[in-house]
Amino acid sequence: MSTISIYNYNKTFKLENGKKLRKLEIAYQTYGKLNAKKDNVIWACHALTANSDVLDWWKGLFGNNALFNPDEHFIICANVLGSHYGSTNPLSTNPVTGQPYYLAFPEFTIRDLVAAHRLLAAHLGISTVKVLIGGSLGGQQALEWAITDNNAIENLILVATNAVHSPWGIAFNESQRLSITTDRSFYAQKPDGGLKGLKVARSIALLSYRTYDAYSATQLESVNDKIGSFRASSYQNYQGEKLCKRFNAYSYWYLSKAMDSHNVSRNRNSVIDALALVKANTLVIGIENDILFPLAEQEFMAENIPGAEFQSLKSAYGHDGFLIETDALTNVIGNFLKESVHKKIIKLHKTA
């Protein structure tokens, strides 16, 4: 078992846009023990509304009997800046006013999420990460980290993610933010502000996470005489309400903007030049019917990261398959890491 720890960064945290945060807090969880060589670190970067409990939300890939288990590895997952689950976010107290930030919270980027991760790594005495893995927003973080600090990551695993967030993805996020801002309570300076809008945003998001076939398989009516109260309608309402019980509209609004900011070529020559900076042994995994992060985006990364390997997975669930198809992920990632060890041994023999 693991409990949430809080790292308090006592210096001013400067964001990519030049704005500053005081009293930055980073919530994180660790599992297992760091070995003497400090070479057994598995760092998981979470997606948009997840938290630092990776053994909970990535069951099957992480866990006591899983590929990434606390018996062998020192597993770390940090809650991202701006999130609802313990790190500094829009509902945190602004030290200047003594009140929650709400919409006075400064906007931040994927690079700021990575900068916070790196501060935590330094605090924990970790200079190298054996495996850095993330899917979706988590994959954006992992890629940016592997470029920014390219000597620190030994193995990089990118799942259902991209090098630049697409106009299509930004359009989905903007549609969700529009739904949040049509809820007038979003501007009411209350912790539960914007929840009606957030419910709609989640409903929109689900359409990008799943597929036509997934809805046909799970929400198809069993009778033919209905003219209302359809299962698909109930499902959208249920999922929206479920998120509203565990998240806040302000964090969602800011984190979706951070996802939009993802572009590894910013202040670098080009996307291809930026990807060429990755030194980690890299595996890129895509989901064949992912409409939010289409397979072409993963193929592009694999083609331009030096020596990267590419694998595609079939899933009925579209983008959400990266959280669901853990048996397939275990097989693909397990084989990749075994091959990585083999390559490392051969390299050592050649240099001996």
TrEMBL record:
Lineage, top-rank taxon, reads Bacteria
Stated EC number for the protein is 2.3.1.31
Q: Which GO terms describe its molecular function?
A: homoserine O-acetyltransferase activity
User: Which Pfam families does the protein's record reference?
Assistant: Abhydrolase_1 (PF00561)
SUPFAM superfamilies to which the protein is assigned, alphabetical: alpha/beta-Hydrolases
Keyword Amino-acid biosynthesis included in the entry's annotation: yes
Record domain AB hydrolase-1: where: 45-323
For the ligand (substrate), the binding residues are: R202, D320
Q: Which UniProt keywords apply?
A: Acyltransferase, Amino-acid biosynthesis, Cytoplasm, Methionine biosynthesis, Transferase
Catalytic site: S136 (nucleophile), D290, H319
Catalytic activity of the protein: L-homoserine + acetyl-CoA = O-acetyl-L-homoserine + CoA
State if Ribosomal protein is listed as a keyword.
no
Question: What broad class of enzyme is this?
Answer: transferase
GO BP terms in the entry? homoserine metabolic process; methionine biosynthetic process
List the InterPro entries: AB_hydrolase_1 (IPR000073), AB_hydrolase_fold (IPR029058), HAT_MetX-like (IPR008220)
- Pathway named in the protein's UniProt entry: Amino-acid biosynthesis; L-methionine biosynthesis via de novo pathway; O-acetyl-L-homoserine from L-homoserine: step 1/1
Entry function: Transfers an acetyl group from acetyl-CoA to L-homoserine, forming acetyl-L-homoserine.
Q: According to its UniProt record, which protein family does this protein belong to?
A: Belongs to the AB hydrolase superfamily. MetX family.
Please report the name of this protein according to its UniProt entry: Homoserine O-acetyltransferase
